[in-house]
Design a protein that fits this description.
- The structure is a homotrimer of 458-residue chains.
- The first copy, chain A, has a single domain (14-36, 58-201, 208-437), classed as Ammonium transporter fold, CATH 1.10.3430.
- The longest helix of chain A has 30 residues, at 388-417.
- Chain A is built from 16 helices and five strands.
- Chain A is mainly alpha-helical.
- Helices cover 64% and strands 3% of the residues of chain A.
- In chain A, helix 3 (56-78) runs parallel beside helix 5.
- The two termini of chain A are 34 Å apart.
- At the A-B interface, helix 1, strand 1, helix 2, helix 3 and helix 4 of A face helix 3, helix 8, helix 9, strand 4 and helix 12 of B.
- Strand 5 (437-438) of chain A pairs parallel with strand 4 (278-279) of chain B, so a sheet runs across the interface.
Amino acid sequence: MAWNTDLRWRLPATCLLLQVALIVLFGVFARYDPHSDAHWPQNKRSGNISSDLENEFYYRYPSFQDVNAMIFVGFGFLMTFLHRYGYSAVGFNFLLAAFGIQWALLVQGWLHSFENGHILLGVENLINADFCVGSVCVAFGAVLGKVSPLQLLLMTLFQVTLFSVNEFILLKLLWVKDAGGSMTIHVFGAYYGLMVTTFLKRSNLSQSKARQTAVYQSDLFAMIGTLFLWIFWPSFNSAVSNHGDAQHRAAINTYCSLAACVVTTVALSSTLHKKGKLDMVHIQNATLAGGVAVGTAAEMMLMPYGALLAGFICGLVSTLGFVYLTPFLESRLRIHDTCGIHNLHGLPGIIGAIVGAVTAASASVETYGEEGLIRAFDFEGAKQNWTASTQGQYQAAGLFVSLAMALVGGSLTGLVLKLPFWGQAADENCFDDAIYWELPENPALTPEDPTRKPPQEP
Amino acid sequence: MAWNTDLRWRLPATCLLLQVALIVLFGVFARYDPHSDAHWPQNKRSGNISSDLENEFYYRYPSFQDVNAMIFVGFGFLMTFLHRYGYSAVGFNFLLAAFGIQWALLVQGWLHSFENGHILLGVENLINADFCVGSVCVAFGAVLGKVSPLQLLLMTLFQVTLFSVNEFILLKLLWVKDAGGSMTIHVFGAYYGLMVTTFLKRSNLSQSKARQTAVYQSDLFAMIGTLFLWIFWPSFNSAVSNHGDAQHRAAINTYCSLAACVVTTVALSSTLHKKGKLDMVHIQNATLAGGVAVGTAAEMMLMPYGALLAGFICGLVSTLGFVYLTPFLESRLRIHDTCGIHNLHGLPGIIGAIVGAVTAASASVETYGEEGLIRAFDFEGAKQNWTASTQGQYQAAGLFVSLAMALVGGSLTGLVLKLPFWGQAADENCFDDAIYWELPENPALTPEDPTRKPPQEP
Amino acid sequence: MAWNTDLRWRLPATCLLLQVALIVLFGVFARYDPHSDAHWPQNKRSGNISSDLENEFYYRYPSFQDVNAMIFVGFGFLMTFLHRYGYSAVGFNFLLAAFGIQWALLVQGWLHSFENGHILLGVENLINADFCVGSVCVAFGAVLGKVSPLQLLLMTLFQVTLFSVNEFILLKLLWVKDAGGSMTIHVFGAYYGLMVTTFLKRSNLSQSKARQTAVYQSDLFAMIGTLFLWIFWPSFNSAVSNHGDAQHRAAINTYCSLAACVVTTVALSSTLHKKGKLDMVHIQNATLAGGVAVGTAAEMMLMPYGALLAGFICGLVSTLGFVYLTPFLESRLRIHDTCGIHNLHGLPGIIGAIVGAVTAASASVETYGEEGLIRAFDFEGAKQNWTASTQGQYQAAGLFVSLAMALVGGSLTGLVLKLPFWGQAADENCFDDAIYWELPENPALTPEDPTRKPPQEP
């Protein structure tokens, strides 16, 4: 089936409409919080804050910048591995993330930092908006190459909304801890994306098979993405944790888990190749599963060996998934997952949620200290009578809620995106920048498209 | 006309001369400031500073590192889009910035942090030196591919000097606020560079037209630059703002403005293409105009919607500029602006200055609080009787001074650089690394030069 | 001689064995330190710490992230300059660093932060682990392309151990100051690597000469590495310095030294080319020597001009080394140093150690203040009676110890790695990703291997 892929009026109109709506909504709702408002000198006095350094900015800004790098550089370049889809990978990721963070500031603001009719913005809102968009970037990985930028904008619109609702249910109704988002970001993003791609099933995708591969240079560009995600993941998992020990511990645990995961990934990648060679797909992706593995438990007293163990297991599971599960899903269930997000975010996210639930359930006064335990899990006020075991059960519940929300939400989104007027490419034109981008004119300097006939020689 | 492009003695002699002069001048003038000197324990006591954390280093160092990444990685890679000029883009940017920061530390030091015959250096000086060099990187964009490294060193020498004088006039004489440098960095840098390129007019540049294009890989390299500029721009605009709320607010506003700008740029890029396709040039450049748009106002109470609006407008203006203005300037006025800096820094810089002037003029006690207003605009001491409206008028004056300084300074520099002995390439050899770089020997592995004849087959 | 390069069982078994051992050892030994443990509220009280901000995390975390970027992105991409060895450069660096940081946490922990039978981990341990692995990355540069991943794991195992012992001798027994590791990291890493490569001498390496070159794109990838190392080096040299002025000063000095080094490198590179052209090898490498040059002295009162001078000299020496010394070592002494680490880390490291010794020896109460001098060199407790001159002598001793440890340790490691069963490639297959990596199938899209015959046409 051939759809019209000329987005000349549809894409601009949608962008401008959304952006104008955002400006109006920001005008009505968005204000600065006490730490970013010019009334800070008064706020400082009334809050008994002695130094400008106690401004939340200094606790969180370096982490924010690392997270920001992960979303735009990390995810953007990670997806450039397809040799004819680099512009789209990095460019569409840029577009959806830039739109998504604005919408996330609003939706998360209404749900989490709404006071007297206004959303109060501070650095933590920026981090949370990046987090939310991170989950869209995850889902993008499943549909990469098969959707138009218009579909991506719509998916972002829906997913950011549902993400924020799910996050609200988990954090505010179930009082779950999930600082690095194993459940809210990775499980939700992965299964949401997998449902979308399932509903967008394309029967003749094999026609563009030749473009579904990497070339030497595109694999190196993808490694830029991998490494920036990898090095800054400790900031990701610690960015919104409690001040002091929790941020500190989350960074240490994530660092340990990531390191173990790389070693396991290399081991499995070599084992599963008949000549013991390494596969770039695994090195680019499965090495990151260690960050997802401790997305819930990193700020808890997981202990360094616990972090290593979580990374170890996720490296195994993720690499096995790339080798066995992805082909199975594609051939049997017709679920085409371009980047293998199920292996990098789905399964490790579930494991991370379980690790978090178990770690929470086994928390004790001995390990945390009395004050420490209360502080780590907010066992005061409404949660005053909670025990570690209660917390563990609610954590587990959070996993199921996230899964359910993702499956239902992703299905509905998939249904909408299936409509024929969003400018999607025909099956034989997938994974090709040329559909949506003006490409350099000199054909000799552009990577050859192996599916196209060579120019006839005279 | 064929000039001698062999720089063997001229370039080394200039580099060594400049570097030795810098060492001598640093020896005479440069010392550590109270926060970086080993006398810090005493300075702490005499300044009633209770903790090492109050050392300026901890307020500003993370921002400094982000700014440093922008200057060297961001600008360096942004300019690698030309397919035969990647070495020069990233390499000459490296050279001019490394020389420029040293010279800027001195000139800015003499004007801004000179005490008892010495320049006192701290982390803020490093940021300001990077800022100053940022304006040279902007100007470099206009002449990219058409000048020798020797000319770039001279341009840096002149521009850093004039930048610092202009900055002194604005900040110290006109008491203008311009934390992110819409006027001092972007307007000044852009119009300075445009004047230089105007004076260096080349009549036969069309002979190297074939090399003035991107290829697939070079566009991806350029996106590295774009994204690192984009993600760290909140640090750029907040790096030297007041402690606490001002830094915090500047980061939030910049983040908002940048996000809106991306969405608008995509909308316009698609609208202006006859088949609705996106143009990499716009995505690489116009998406950044949002950072320039709030370069003056980011630290003020611009409000989040104000930031979105500024980014929205600059995305429009910048993309329109690339499509209509750049070709017009080139064909009618003979101003060849290689990277289109007029669209990314010139026009958005002017808009940013106006946004700043308006935001300042409309500042009120209600919005800032009494203390907040005084603190935001230094309405004390000599400025005790200033009103918001006075501030706004001075802001506007600052824009005109910057423009004037840039036009005059750039013209003079252009006149000097026009002299025939700086090793510049002939018109037909522009945009070619081979003039100044030893290239890899294996021709098969180097991007083909479409302007050269293919090797004859037997 | 043809070895078996199929690593299918050897590499996975080694990885898994090492990783399981690490998990067990972490389980027995590794715990959180008082700033990262959940008992932090109590620890804060008992330590009279008033604010969460005084948690060590906030002093050091931004620097840690920069250092982490240097190790994985910086070193990884710097070594991608070989046109057929990009996967291995970035991938093996990833593997060895991920394994190395875990092992370093343990060995350095036993030697430096062992209390009551446990290693206490905090952010400073993470930085030191990255530092230690940095020295392995340096040594990797000497053997790049000639060793198997299995050999690299073994080298890392040995080198991390010896590094930590050497570091212990220098810092704890000789009370040497070496915050940026001129001696412990650069001299040790460089001469260790040179000894390993000497022992692994290959007589027919010229057979893979054609693959020992860069291509246009691979040089640009390498510049990513160069620039990330360069911009973050100020964080590297200041990351573990004393709070306050020492961190601040170390960053300033490193920034200055690096800048001067770039200008000198360009000067020399042009001088030494017969047509005055620049050589990418110098720009990629010698520009970084300025960071090594002040690795010991950066935190001292080196004075800004002293930093410039150190960078100036190391730029000269390093570039000269690339032009004259590397060919000499290779042709006369049969020492094949793939990346020229002797010029970037060896010689500048020695110079840096000397600069440090001289700066320490000339420290005075006048320059440091009484308190400042004691604080800078820990002249209290056991060192109570030390003078600046004593410190200078011990610094010099540290250099010789590091050299001796590196030469002996590297030789022993070289002997072990020479054994024929580690999966190393034959001489004619060196510098080729195809030995250890599954490469993209489409040959048209992979950089051609000039040493292989083209496919026969029918």
